[in-house]
User: Fold this.
Amino acid sequence: MKYISTRGHVEPKGFIDTVLMGLADDGGLMVPEQIPAVSAATLEEWRSLSYQELFLKIFSLYTNDEIPYEDLKELVATSYSTFRSPEVTPLHQVNDSLYVLELFHGPTFAFKDVALQFMGELYSYISRKRGEIIHILGATSGDTGAAAIQGVRGKEGIKICILHPHGKVSKVQELQMTTVDDSNVLNLSVHGNFDDCQKVIKDLFADLDFKGRYHLRAINSINFVRILAQTVYYFYAYLQVEGSAEKKINISVPSGNFGNIFSGYLAKQMGLPINKLIIATNENNILERFVNTGEYKPGNFKSTYSPSMDIQVASNFERYLYYLLGEDAEKLSGYMSKLQSEGKITVDGELLAQVQSDFDALGAKNQQCLDTIGKYKQEYDYLLDPHTACGIAAYEAFSGNGETTITFATAHPAKFDEAIQLIAIKQEFPAPIAALFEMPQHQTVVEHDKEVIIRELQAFYE
Assistant:
């Protein structure tokens, strides 16, 4: 299998070269030339597999044998050895129609660990095998940064710089990043919001001279490996529901950058028989508006109780648009140019009908988020984090009679105690999180100025 750019101006690449490229050199996003198909019979064969075994089956469809099977097996085993649950992503039944897939059992208590622990091991493997210097550069709305840092801290041949919006992540998210004192880690706290941080990252990756000179590699979900690693838990969740082959299974996904939900779209295109893919977001509801009206237009940024979804420009939207437009790179490029020049994209007619066939979407309001947390704690003694609460609100809005919904719990509630306290719920922090509050912080606060950020990066990488 080869990988191509959504914009059509990159020669087909192998798996490892795709990993190293991250953002395509023509400004697009890398996708497989063909999506492999998984039959119903194969799905049944996979039902008894462990998470790690399932991961190997799915990745083997995409790696072109560039990573020997035994090496890949070792990478997977190491990646998930630090998770607190032997199932990696255990499935919890809440009621007759609702399951929650707990994605927060990794070292930083968030779903990003599932992909980024593997990516950290993969980058380290590539660095050793190819003798390559790897400088990871990424932006985070909170969870990606901590998980990425945890995945590569202290690893030889790798340096990582993460930009996060100053004062716009939760305190625990901030501490998980900034209490790391390894010499290969740099935290830049940027005055601005996540979209500001993300734009700087994209601009730097689009500068091919700068990208090549400093060996820049992507850890954000612009990197296809992030998408693929997340696809695994869609299959795992579906296969853990007893009798799922005879049921209508919906999946409700908190998603701000379109990466997590696009992983579900990829799984469905591979053959996973998901009934409804439900996008859950917050008052930064660009994705809800797109699904409902066909207009993709960044709005006014709002700070919410679910800050990891406080995003107006969704990086992975381009991958979905590519498939929506029939894998027509020229047409996709036209749409993206229009977004750049006019600030919006609009689809209608058959295209909008296809969008509404692919997804349902809900942007949960702040109060609705808090009310949902309180309701599920009272009725089921199950504490949700604010992002998962948005997912549950979307389940309540779109799950029909006779349907079963799996909602992704994308973070442990201890990461967002500021919201939990607003409804007078007192929670006990896990010991690794409680310990963060006694540790010194290491970060550099900078203005939202690309030249200032470049100078910080040059000093760090050189």
